[in-house]
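Wed. Picked up where I left off yesterday with Glutamine--fructose-6-phosphate aminotransferase [isomerizing]. The coffee machine is broken again, so keeping this brief.
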Amino acid sequence: DASDIEKGTYPHYMLKEIDEQPLVTRKIIQAYQNDNNELTIDADIIQSVNDTDRIYIIACGTSYHAGLVGKQFIENMAGIPVEVHVASEFSYNMPLLSEKPLFIFISQSGETADSRSVLVQVKELGHRSLTITNVQGSTLSREADYTLLLHAGPEIAVASTKAYTAQLAVLAIFANVTAASKGKELGFDLVQELGIVATSMEALCDSKEGFEDIAREYLATTRNCFFIGRSLDYYVGLEGALKLKEISYIQAEGFAGGELKHGTIALIEEGTPVVALATQESVNLSIRGNVKEVAARGANPCIISMKGLEEEDDRFVLPEVNEMLTPLISVIPLQLISYYAALHRDCDVDKPRNLAKSVTVE
Ligand code: G6P
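Structure written out below (tokens, as returned):
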């Protein structure tokens, strides 16, 4: 309950929750370690994952965006096919299911009605389910067969921040432990890599002024803003656009870099802000090509890249982390830019108009 959680010296819960991300990441590492410091999850869950032929992730909003990244984690590390669905669409457009599906519900609150209604449906069909949630004892947690907790502490601001990175960390651990149970060699130590992520998050939270500058420079008066990226950066761009629309009311869209030419580029006008993420080596040249295309049509590009891939005009260079885990850190600049944009535009950061923290109606 908001009244029980103090903002302390913070002007807004959102800023406090953004700053909590390094700590939450460390808490999650601890919570999922056994006495030998190995990552572990409930044996029943592992059993169910090893029995499944396909995972279906069901979620809404920010949790859906976490699911898109989670699919890559699970497919790349554990080698299990994954589909990600928006809960509301799934109900009336249920895809043909595999023989032995496992459903994963991602929900910060554990109360979202759209996701609950899918859970009711798939339980009737007799399928297994796992809820990844921040709230122990929440409806989705009680109704599913298994639960993995986010350990993020209460999230009060309507715009989700620390729950998103916590969802990514837990999904990475889930994928990693599953991979280990299948005897797969991944060639990296996730505990160590997540530790590096936490340290990098701290560095980003200490760079707030830079992000305030970006917000002022690009977003003080604009009507719209685009986020582009390829591969994992595309998914983070979707989340960045959602954050910006939720709290600053700027019309924002996230696009896959390769899709620009199929329509969106028509929207680029003189001065249109385009935030481009460039953290993935395999698509670095292509995304930079997209930046040139929009710049040639008058856009005002803001490139956020990662150490090792940076170029001269980049506006911000993220510290280097494991390439698969970049969404855990590349989202932080986008959260902070949205926060400062909302602030500059005199918006109610923690309680944006028309939105609720948890939506318990379909
Ligand atoms: C609401 C919130 C969003 C959230 C979504 C899903 O729309 O405003 O921030 O992402 O619900 O919530 P959940 O609790 O299921 O993650």
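Quick read: Residues 60-63, 107-109, 112, 115, 158, 160, 355, 357-359 surround 6-O-phosphono-alpha-D-glucopyranose (CB under 6 Å).
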